[in-house]
Design goal:
The protein is an alpha+beta fold. It folds into two domains: 2-176, Beta-Lactamase, CATH 3.30.450; 234-422, Hypothetical protein af1432. The chain is built from 14 helices and five strands. It has helices spanning 2-49, 63-83, 109-117, 166-232, 236-252, 256-268, 278-281, 289-296, 298-306, 316-321, 342-357, 368-377, 385-403, 407-422; strands spanning 87-93, 99-104, 129-135, 138-148, 154-163. It has a five-stranded antiparallel β-sheet, sandwiched between helices. β3 (129-135) and β4 (138-148) form a beta hairpin. The longest helix has 67 residues, at 166-232. The structure holds fe (ii) ion (FE2). Residues 269-270, 298, 322-323 line the site of fe (ii) ion (FE2).
């Protein structure tokens, strides 16, 4: 049980850590990207603004002077901002947003072509703007910005394509990777640190739940035994049918949850007899029709008792259907065949076997072999034929281990199995 809980905790912690890593890693990634964008934009804008000293020619009215200075500015841009800088294209616009100069690096014509094919044109906005472009695996930033002089007056507009240095890109990518890995590492280390704390808390919870389950089982056994003692003068019937039922369930491979329901049902199957009078319950002779009707109502009383408790929900099938017969002639619902719940079909076999082989107020027990013979006669009518076959196969062991055991031995065996199926540790 603890191993299952431990595995579940590990899986859940890992899943939560993974989820947090993906979410946090993504958030960190985009935050870092945004920071890098801002950084690169500032570099590009700084370079653009540095051209403010060279755009005074835009106000020249003489065409020759204008062309001359424009040529000088173009040479300056080519040498300082393109050949030795990071721009591959620079365009200048006058205050009326008319293009007056374009300088581009002939080695990056493909970039210009690619940018020209991009659907969105950069607007010559009143404030700086940018967009990122990946061309041939390299990052370029297209920047647009007004150029202003000291007074704040916009004297020109700048538009350029800034090339991210591959070396700088590598460093940025490495920084990104390290940042994301740091976040992931912190999350997984935190999850690992939480693991022992959760394990200790879970162990305490399991111990409490274990104690509670055992206490519940104790109450359930006491209740079932009280009814059995009143009905039969001994509580060993309940112990035996429970042991038989568990062995049957194990033989057919019923799962743990099914066996737990079967055990609860075995203890409580006749709990409804609490509502049947002693006169009927202990009548040594055959019951009248009316007495039989009252006796059969013990199923309804039992259902009324168990249906209100969630913990007893899995006992319902046995309490409700333990007097049904495979051919549909049983009570209280007349269900037949495989429509009768499996736990009830199992229980019917072991209940009848124990009824036949134990002493009742109105008759002596029949022998083990006689009991098996009588049960075979009801194969397919009262009992599920497949289950009866299984029962016949283990009947010798059941007879030796359970039927012939004393009450103390029965209590010991039951305590062991109760720990197996209801113990959490
Ligand atoms: Fe019954």
């Amino acid at each position: 049980m603890m191993r299952q809980v431990r595995n579940r905790i590990i899986k859940r912690l890992f899943f939560v850590a993974l989820l947090l890593s993906v979410l946090s890693g993504t958030a960190v990634f985009f935050l870092e990207i945004k920071k890098v964008d801002e950084h690169v934009l500032q570099l590009a804008l700084k370079e653009a603004q540095s051209l403010s000293d060279h755009v005074a020619f835009l106000s020249l009215r003489d065409e020759r002077d204008f062309a001359l200075v424009r040529e000088q500015v173009a040479e300056h841009i080519m040498s300082d901002h393109i050949s030795r800088g990071n721009f591959v294209v620079i365009e200048l616009y006058d205050p009326d947003r008319k293009k007056v100069l374009k300088v581009s690096d002939p080695d990056y014509e493909q970039v210009e072509d690619a940018v020209g094919k991009q659907p969105r044109k950069m607007p010559l906005a009143v404030k700086a703007d940018y967009r990122k472009l990946y061309i041939d695996g390299l990052l370029y930033i297209q920047v647009s910005s007004p150029i202003s002089i000291a007074s704040g007056e916009v004297v020109a507009y700048f538009e350029g394509i800034y090339r991210m240095d591959p070396g700088a890109m590598g460093a940025i990518n490495m920084r990104l990777l390290v940042s994301v890995l740091q976040v992931v590492l912190v999350i997984f280390v935190t999850a690992a640190a939480m693991y022992p704390v959760i394990i200790v808390l879970s162990r305490d919870m399991i111990r409490l739940s274990d104690d509670l389950a055992m206490a519940n089982m104790g109450i359930l056994e006491a209740l079932g035994s009280a009814v059995s003692k009143r009905d039969r003068g001994t509580n060993s019937h309940n112990y035996r049918v429970t042991l038989y039922a568990i062995r049957m369930a194990e033989a057919i491979g019923l799962d743990r949850e099914g066996i737990k329901g079967l055990v609860k049902g075995a203890f409580l199957h006749d709990i409804g007899k609490i509502g049947v009078s002693d006169d009927i319950l202990n009548k040594p002779s055959e019951l009248t029709r009316e007495e039989s009707r009252l006796m059969e109502a013990h199923v309804d009383h039992g259902v009324d008792i168990v249906k209100n408790y969630a913990w007893l929900g899995d006992a319902f099938d046995v309490v409700m259907y333990h007097h049904e017969k495979y051919d549909g002639t049983g009570y209280r619902t007349g269900l037949r065949g495989k429509d009768i719940p499996l736990k009830a079909r199992i229980f019917t076999i072991v209940d009848v076997f124990d009824a036949l082989t134990s002493r009742r107020p109105y008759r002596d027990p029949v022998s083990y072999h006689e009991a098996l013979r009588m049960m075979r006669e009801e194969r397919g009518t009262r009992f599920d034929p497949d289950l009866l076959n299984k029962f016949m196969a283990i009947a010798p062991d059941l007879h030796r281990d359970v039927c012939l055991a004393c009450d103390d031995r029965l209590v010991g065996m039951l305590a062991d199995l109760r720990t197996v199926y209801f113990g959490a540790r």
